[in-house]
Design a protein that fits this description.
Elements lengths: L5 H9 L4 H17 L7 E6 L13 E2 L10 H30 L6 H21 L7 H28 L2 H6 L3 H25 L4 H26 L4 H38 L2 E2 L2 E9 L3 E8 L5 E7 L7 H14 L10 E7 L4 E6 L2 E4 H8 L4 H20 L2 E2 L8 E6 L2 E7 L6 E2 L23 H4 L8 H16 L9 H10 L14 H10 L11 H9 L9 H10 L3 E2 L1
Antiparallel strand pairs: 1-2, 1-7, 3-4, 4-5, 5-6, 6-8, 7-8, 9-11, 9-14, 10-13, 11-12
Length: about 575
């Protein structure tokens, strides 16, 4: 099967010791394609510190990694539900086989015999299916759940029918209330056990458990009503007492089942949220990007909070991405500029999930800041943009091109008593402009970036963009900061990219007359269509910003006062 994936074959040849791991990952991806839902298992994973190689990795302790999609995601429910249904299906099959000698003499017509055989054979086939190794979608498992409990409902309903038809209830009812209570105990015990087992064994939310338990109770009462009407040989008062006591019993066991389902689901959520990924304990999701989710996490030993980004498995379908990711994160970990988010380490789980840990920051993204405050004062915009230039200067010096500079990827935070500290985030689309023997290694997609802030060369799908595309995007961010709008806003992404390619930008002063002319000239130069017309590098851009007349109009005291009244969001 490795031969069906040329890139995977190449990777297996380079690292033969991990060919089996790659084979398992291919199987997982095929399961994802077949079922639309991921299959979770106890998977070995390892943490790789920056500077190590994937070839050096060794198995570590097992961990269950759950890419959560909300409370009790499908990744978590599906394997658990399948295990529980195996038990229920096995119980059904054993019950049908063992009860055959008891019920066979009572089946005097072909109808019950055929129904019994169909149910028995079906239960056995479901049991074999569940104990197999082929992945089963969650929706199919829910249907199996309904069928499995439906078989038990039919079985217990059949018992109720014969309990009345054989005259046992009439005999007990002759003792009036004590006899009716005894009849309820003899027939309702199995139904109560069925309902409680459903609440405890089947993973459900409290709402879904309540609906299922209510349905089971209503079905049981409907069966009893039908049987009583059909037999019709019991005094009316005794029948009413029987139904009232039965309803009370169903209410009690139903409440126990729903409460049990709620508590078990809550415990399951707590365990999932506390689950470790290497040395990190996942706490809660705090964001999502184009390539994965970001979680607030805590280092188990250092007790240091961090942001843990999980790269979605569907983004890593070939070995080129594997090599690219390793190279990029190792390079990013070498960046030490105070305005670049720090990367602590990274890892690869055996199910194909990549992750890396970075510093956890409290603050506002520029996008959220403008949404809250409106367009920023020009002096504050210059103050923040100069910091971002510093971060990009270091990245560009080592050959990194960010390619996704936008307001959402720049955080304004308060760190160590310093206010309005800009942090450049999310190098998820970074291009490493370093020579490599594989000319196709970088190009994962033809067009990457955010349409509202991407450069014309990115919009044109150019595979070889340089640092000047970041200068264009930073100019678009500057435009957004001082006007509150992106340079081009169109109804579709294609139209927006076309505008970047061909349409002239409206001058910022056309939207806000108070924008200084020197700052406007800088922004418009950044937004020129041809790269050679822009600033040649971020150093020259930062120097131009430093010469703006408004550069000193935003002071540390003003920033501190703003932060005293601001309520921070978190990244």
């Amino acid at each position: 099967r490795l031969g069906e994936y040329p890139e995977a074959k190449e990777y297996a040849d380079r690292f033969p010791a991990h060919a089996k791991l790659l084979q398992d990952q291919i199987s997982l991806h095929r399961a994802l394609e077949d079922t639309d839902v991921g299959q979770t298992a106890a998977l070995s994973q390892t943490i790789m510190m920056p500077g190590t190689s994937i070839a050096d990795r060794t198995p570590d302790t097992p961990t269950n990694l759950v890419i959560r999609e909300g409370l009790s995601s499908q990744w978590e429910i599906r394997p658990l539900l399948r295990k529980r249904l195996r038990l229920i299906a096995l119980l059904n099959s054993v019950l049908i086989v063992l009860s055959l000698p008891v019920w066979w003499p009572l089946m005097v017509s072909p109808g019950p015999i055929v129904a019994y055989l169909v149910v028995g054979v079906g239960s056995c086939l479901i049991t074999v299916w569940l104990w197999g190794h082929r992945p089963i979608p969650l929706l199919t498992l829910r249907w199996i759940e309904a069928v499995s409990f439906g078989v038990l409902v039919l079985y217990f309903g059949w018992q109720d029918f014969w309990f009345f038809k054989s005259g046992w209830f009439a005999t007990l009812a002759s003792y009036h209330l004590p006899g009716v209570v005894t009849a309820v105990r003899s027939q309702s015990g199995q139904w109560g056990l069925l309902i409680i087992l459903y609440g405890i064994l089947i993973p459900n939310t409290a709402r879904r458990a309540l609906a299922a338990v209510a349905l089971l109770a209503c079905v049981r009462l409907a069966i009893l009503g039908g049987v009583v009407v059909t037999i019709g040989d019991v005094a009316n008062a005794d029948t009413v007492n029987f139904f009232l006591i039965t309803i009370l019993g169903m209410f009690v066991v139903g409440a126990i089942a729903v409460f049990g389902a709620h508590r078990i689901e809550g415990l399951r959520q707590s365990v999932s949220e506390a689950r470790k990924l290497g040395p990190y304990r996942l706490i809660r999701p705090i964001g999502a990007g184009g390539m994965g989710q970001v979680y607030l996490a805590e280092h188990a030993l250092l007790r240091r909070p961090c942001a843990l980004k999980l790269i979605r498995p569907e983004q890593v379908g070939d070995a080129r991405f594997l090599a690219r990711f390793e190279r990029e994160v190792q390079t990013l970990a070498t960046l030490t500029h105070p305005n670049t988010v720090r990367v602590y380490d990274y890892g690869l789980a055996a199910d194909g999930t990549f992750y890396y840990a970075m510093e956890y920051l409290s603050g506002w993204s520029l996008e959220a800041l403008v949404a809250r405050e409106g367009p920023l004062p020009p002096a504050r915009a210059v103050y923040l943009l100069r910091q971002v230039c510093g971060a990009l200067r270091e990245a560009h010096a080592v050959g990194l091109v960010h390619r996704d500079i936008k307001p959402a990827n720049i955080l304004v935070s308060e760190i160590g008593g310093m206010h309005d500290v800009a942090k450049l985030l999310d190098f998820g689309l970074v291009q490493v402009a370093i020579p490599t023997t594989d000319v196709n290694l970088t190009g994962i997609g033809a067009i990457v970036g955010t349409p509202a802030f991407m450069s014309p060369e990115q919009a044109a799908g150019s595979a070889n963009v340089d640092s000047r595309c970041d200068i264009y995007s930073l100019g678009a961010v500057a435009y957004f900061l001082v006007t509150g709008k992106a340079p081009f806003t169109r109804s579709t992404s294609v139209e927006t990219m076309a505008a970047h390619l061909a349409e002239p930008v409206v001058a910022p002063s056309g939207l806000r007359a108070e924008i200084p002319s020197d700052l406007e000239d800088i922004i418009l130069r950044c937004l020129t269509k041809q790269p050679h017309d822009r600033f040649p590098n971020v150093t020259s851009l930062e120097q131009a910003l430093a010469r703006c007349a408004c550069r000193d109009d935003w002071s540390a005291e003003q920033a501190a006062n703003w932060w005293l009244t601001a309520t921070s969001s978190v990244y």
